[in-house]
Every structure is written in structure tokens, then in C-alpha cells.
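SAMPLE LOG
Freezer: B-3
Tube label: C17
Construct: single chain, 126 aa
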Amino acid sequence: QLQTVESGGGLVQPGGSLRLSCAASGFTLDYYAIGWFRQAPGKEREGVSCISSGVGTTVYADSVKGRFTISRDNAKNTVYLQMNSLQPEDTAVYYCAARPVWTSLCVLWGGEYDYWGQGTQVTVSS
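STRUCTURE (predicted):
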């Protein structure tokens, strides 16, 4: 069964950092576009960042540019989201999703992704 498994969430103070991991189960991440999405209580799901298959083109939402970095470790079959300078508005459940497509592009629209994990909670609070 194909699925993604997120980990690394937690409670952090404003200005702090966390690194989320997205591990692939049942497939090889390099052949998939991977997106990170988040959903805060009472808000719609928001695309945060994505990385394409192959060359690994990256895309970031304006709200996280310069603070978040997405990367992929093919040897570990894992995608990471390094989050720095976290703010209370970053509080949400973070999901990673996979899209089986071989292209140098990726998109921040959840409807394009087929496989989703259960999410990991990120809480930014003093």
C-alpha cells in the first residue's frame, strides 16, 4: 500500500525551528512530486512547498519563502521540510502528499496529489 508518513512535529517557541520528515512507504520518492500542505483549525488547507521528481525543482508559498526549505534524500527515501523562524501563524497540522509524475514542475494544489499521510501537528507558541 502506497502511503506517506510524516514525523517531526511538536511544540516550539516563536522564532524556533523544526524539521519535518516525509517517509515513503511502498514507492520510491524520486519518481514522485512531493508536496507539503498545512491546515489550521477553521481554515482551508494551504500549500506550503513542493519538490518535483527528478531534478527536484522547488516551489514555496509566499508565506514561507525565506524561512522554509524543502529537500529530498533519495538514499533515505525521505523528503524534509526545514522550518525556521516559526511564527504562531505557522501552527497547523502538516501533511505531505505524493503525486506520481515525472516532470520538472510541481504545484501547490492538493487536488493534484494522490497519496496522503496522517499529518503531524506543529504548534508555535510561547
